[in-house]
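Colleagues,

Please find the record for the two-part complex below.
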Amino acid sequence: MKHTITALVENKPGVLARIVGLVSGRGYNIETLCVGPTQDDTFSKITMVVPGDDHVLEQVTLQLGKLVDVLHVTDVTRRRHITREMILAEIAAGKEQRAAVMELASMFTAAIVGVRDRSLTIQMTGGEEQVRDFLRALRDFKVLDIARSGAIAVARGNDDDADN
Amino acid sequence: MKHTITALVENKPGVLARIVGLVSGRGYNIETLCVGPTQDDTFSKITMVVPGDDHVLEQVTLQLGKLVDVLHVTDVTRRRHITREMILAEIAAGKEQRAAVMELASMFTAAIVGVRDRSLTIQMTGGEEQVRDFLRALRDFKVLDIARSGAIAVARGNDDDADN
């Protein structure tokens, strides 16, 4: 099963290296990882997606929480959460191919964020399944460059909400 | 100066750990980092933003390119490129506060991707400056959880384009 793990850490050199080292040191492949400062520059938030056995990943999560400079670790897979990912793709498209790229963008409610004579830049956001569909749909195009953010996740509102 | 470095690597355990270790081993703080598989599952693309001296980061980029399982490294800062980032924020909002959150979303062309009785989930995408503005604007709200993807970047189309 895929686990989405978030960690709030001190924004210092070396913290990310220790976290990535601990997870991959156990032989787990980090499928996607995102890290960036929070509203408070002194902290960074890490989101990582790691496929693996529930019990062992629970141990990894506990050990991550014990690392110096790590404030809080959550396996959001066990909680209500929303996950989104972003893809940025530079697609070869002269004037004749533009209509097909725009149709692709429209189907995925993606945005054209760059236009050049021979290429268009598409920005697409979505959940895991939409991202998979989009990557598959891209096979029909000539992709000059592509980058993906990896999944980011937030926990949903208070557990005492009426709909729980 | 901030450098945006992209790397195409083999999608295997340990590769990310070596890259992060090399950069932070030189004392550089990785401000944001994203990694995820490309269209071809056997490869992952890493985008990282590292503030630092031009000359030394050039050396780091060269050394990254020599690591095992690293196919290609580019400092896109030196090329035409488009950079985008995504923020996901869970904002406390009962029925009375919803209008203010929707106004915020509308100003930043952000999307409401989750609605609960007491909270709304906003997904915002933009360039570096828009992201900074959005994070500042969020200070007026009660943020229950927040995650950011970090910058992802793609190189623009061919260098022989007419507008170069």
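Residues 26 and 56 of chain A are 9 Å apart (CA to CA).

Comments are welcome before we finalize the supplementary table.
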